[in-house]
What does this fold into?
Amino acid sequence: MDFAGAYSGDFLIFLLQGLLITLKIALISIILSFTLGTLIGIIRYARVPVLSPVLAVLVELLRNLPLLLIILFSRFALPDLGLRLGPEGAAIAALTVFEMAMISEVVRGGLNSIPKGQVEAARSSGLSSVQTLRYIVLPQGLRRMIPPLVSQFISLLKDTSLATAIALAELMHNAQIIIGHSYNYAIPVLLLCAAIYFTVNYLLSLLSRRLENKGV
It folds into this structure.
């Protein structure tokens, strides 16, 4: 083990560059997957004719495919269909599509957890279906979704490491390059990567608990 060599300035900067790519990919994918997943979850909760069953099939299909397969498809198969994406674009597309399906189920479950009596009371008081969803169901449902949503975001952040398969210069990709210089760097570099992932994900979990306690 060579901690001094593995933690040299150049290598640490190289890992930091990979971490920034990881966080960038994760942040964009989280925003997109949450937006699309919430929309799909609401449509399925509302049981919109035609659209809801079609989305249900799509969600089940995506949830039962390996994420690595979706990443490889986005990078190497989409060009044959006329959509050429670089490593970053392919990673974002794959993570967004996969997590969108997962988040849509979290959203649908959160909305379905609201007692039917509240919905019926809101409708009987004169609120429309959209108003009931907006003012009664969605605010309560979102609070209940916080823990599982954060768990999905943490999974997404960890899953960015799979993008090393398409040569995306994220944290684990850069770590592998450093280890390639000398196997004596393997343990120090992997320990540092583990510490980085743990720190970022632990901060996310703390944020989740804080939001829960505040009743956001």
Remarks:
- The first helix runs from residue 3 to 6.
